[in-house]
């Protein structure tokens, strides 16, 4: 008998007999309806409480704001999506105050050291956010691969205010995650952090030291 | 864990008083105080002569056959449907929470459940079933309170003691830090793991004396002999009393009584 | 005293709990480090649940876990099927050794020499690092706390915060000695140094090994909860990712995840959510530019299917490994995690470890509790930990003929003298006349009461018998 069969058989032939299946009352997960403005406020408050930074922008203003943010950090370059409109907007902006724009268009194996050592910042889209926990929803794609939001010391994320859900429960149902998950999906709620040394918070332990969210209203 | 919802009985004509073995042998004054508080509320207190111990020491030590034999001897003590009141969260918890499980699959299961359902921790019963009103006759004083873990978590009476004390106008109740942490008694635990228990009680005494008070009251005699015994041995300026003794003394000053 | 990372389960004698506990209690640094940490965690947890109906949420969490356990074999098969469809290879291991072998075989097939690890308590349970090391494969921990503990040659003292027993100064000295960083009390500096050291390792690792917090059967999704990003690195950068998890970690649907996640992070560290919630459903697709080419899941039984047989013990398997029980445990706070000598310390360890190592080996674990109930009160999935401790105490002395003991190694703690004492105690207390006579006589003879009562009077005065029992006073009153 294989281990698989042995384990399943032991579980199926349980000596205590069949187990009752309790009802699960999810009403505690329900929230009173909220407006987008309320959700933005909640999101902002929560993510700022964990060292995230929020900038409220418009479709017209975000590029300029981004340029300011990057300049204030002295970022030498910015990793941008190749296909997503964010990338197009930046490349087509014609601004002289943006740093060098990089794209992630080849397998990681061919430029890993460069990504790990030379890239100062990245910008990605999001699939929305969660107000209650101050979380961003990311489903990495070919255009915006997994490491884009992890390796550079500064991660900038664009969040459409209209895509802000009240809770994780709401978000996964509204976006029907159960119908199929991507190879990797993420909730990101602040910069990388640790409290493993005497409960003292330190940021950027493995991932970005800064998480900056541009909320587009 | 404590019952999510408690349905208190109306104030009864009679109660059974289940004293517990610690009170019987070491703190009979606390038992008398409880009885007199009940009587003052106009309740007839019945003290079943054949009571001994709830069985908890053997139960928590794993000797369930021995615990069951002792518990079985208590099951016949309460023939009328009167409430059973216990001046201890720990022994009350044993009867209220653990008797049904101890007698599961035995002929006494129904009886054990029935008894469990009408077992009450006494201060809870005084406050919420008898709706006692206390008139403070004592001099101004400051005390702290330690609610036993079983009173707090099994019987769900953490708020009862402070509410009763708040009725006493000359008593200032101070709260120690980490009030909800165990004092380290735990029955045989204190003997099996003396260093751990000793570390717990020493910190409990420190937090109590840090409030500036020199006296504390508690719901349970186990905690009382632990905390007060540590303070005495280590010459800390702290004395303890069962809360029932304290309540009776405060409200009966100069009137005599048997306490 | 801590358990060296030799991997030999018998290297440390779990039975030697008492001397380790005594040593910890006598060590002011350990006392202070734990007290400070636990006080902070208790406060944070309380604040994090402030706006929730916590009882309703805990009920939901408990019921989600119970429902998953009720359907456990079906859910495991569904999980396997979905993951296989997604391109993940699923393995089953009866015990820790088999799980280690599976991981090693995958490494060997890939000619892997270095493994980078995300935090995984199951891998600690398997003693994977030691197993791999003995076979020429270097396993490096990447969670900062685990990294520190590994540098020190120790094991975690807490399931969420592995290095909680050390303060900044101790960690600084350790890093200075082992990695050559400057001595510094600047946590930012120490953290940045570790980042630098570990980035190299991530880039060069052949395999990443991680744990799993929830495995979702419906979609074949492995969920990982973390703050540092090392878990994401581990599961993304190396070309092969191996996830190891206990068979009980499966839940039915994604909907089950939201309440459990809300409970887990708040209970563990008082966070609304961790920085990263990483959901992995498959290896890199051909068109994708990063992520591992291979993903494996090792489902580890290691005693769990035995726990599963018993209606009461089964509740142990509800655990979502938040550590709240240890954070609130007055015993754990005093003795720290290493005193237990077990992979899982604290209350959850006391009810879980006896199944993994046998109740003969772990006989002292269930006794190291005042049964104060703080653990059960905060458990996010309402495991009745105190009741399970009493059950295991019963099993360890074969104390219940009506419910015969069944845990491996039961009865090992039954001593002839102790059993006789309880029999005598029971005989007397089951006979009211004897009891009244005996207690009245004791009251008469109270001047002869011994002043020293073993461990009790080491710290306290002996309780004094009253001159008359309450029974006697009530009798007098009637007359």
UniProtKB/TrEMBL annotation, chain A:
<dbReference type="InterPro" id="IPR024185">
    <property type="entry name" value="FTHF_cligase-like_sf"/>
</dbReference>
<dbReference type="Pfam" id="PF02589">
    <property type="entry name" value="LUD_dom"/>
</dbReference>
<feature type="domain" description="LUD">
    <location>
        <begin position="40"/>
        <end position="216"/>
    </location>
</feature>
<dbReference type="InterPro" id="IPR003741">
    <property type="entry name" value="LUD_dom"/>
</dbReference>
<protein>
    <submittedName>
        <fullName>Lactate utilization protein C</fullName>
    </submittedName>
</protein>
<dbReference type="InterPro" id="IPR037171">
    <property type="entry name" value="NagB/RpiA_transferase-like"/>
</dbReference>
TrEMBL record, chain B:
<dbReference type="InterPro" id="IPR004017">
    <property type="entry name" value="Cys_rich_dom"/>
</dbReference>
<feature type="domain" description="Cysteine-rich">
    <location>
        <begin position="143"/>
        <end position="227"/>
    </location>
</feature>
<feature type="domain" description="Cysteine-rich">
    <location>
        <begin position="15"/>
        <end position="95"/>
    </location>
</feature>
<dbReference type="Pfam" id="PF02754">
    <property type="entry name" value="CCG"/>
</dbReference>
<protein>
    <submittedName>
        <fullName>(Fe-S)-binding protein</fullName>
    </submittedName>
</protein>
From TrEMBL, chain C:
<dbReference type="Pfam" id="PF11870">
    <property type="entry name" value="LutB_C"/>
</dbReference>
<dbReference type="InterPro" id="IPR004452">
    <property type="entry name" value="LutB/LldF"/>
</dbReference>
<dbReference type="InterPro" id="IPR017900">
    <property type="entry name" value="4Fe4S_Fe_S_CS"/>
</dbReference>
<keyword id="KW-0249">Electron transport</keyword>
<dbReference type="InterPro" id="IPR024569">
    <property type="entry name" value="LutB_C"/>
</dbReference>
<feature type="domain" description="4Fe-4S ferredoxin-type">
    <location>
        <begin position="310"/>
        <end position="339"/>
    </location>
</feature>
<keyword id="KW-0408">Iron</keyword>
<dbReference type="InterPro" id="IPR017896">
    <property type="entry name" value="4Fe4S_Fe-S-bd"/>
</dbReference>
<keyword id="KW-0004">4Fe-4S</keyword>
<keyword id="KW-0677">Repeat</keyword>
<dbReference type="Pfam" id="PF13183">
    <property type="entry name" value="Fer4_8"/>
</dbReference>
<dbReference type="Pfam" id="PF02589">
    <property type="entry name" value="LUD_dom"/>
</dbReference>
<dbReference type="InterPro" id="IPR024185">
    <property type="entry name" value="FTHF_cligase-like_sf"/>
</dbReference>
<dbReference type="InterPro" id="IPR003741">
    <property type="entry name" value="LUD_dom"/>
</dbReference>
<keyword id="KW-0813">Transport</keyword>
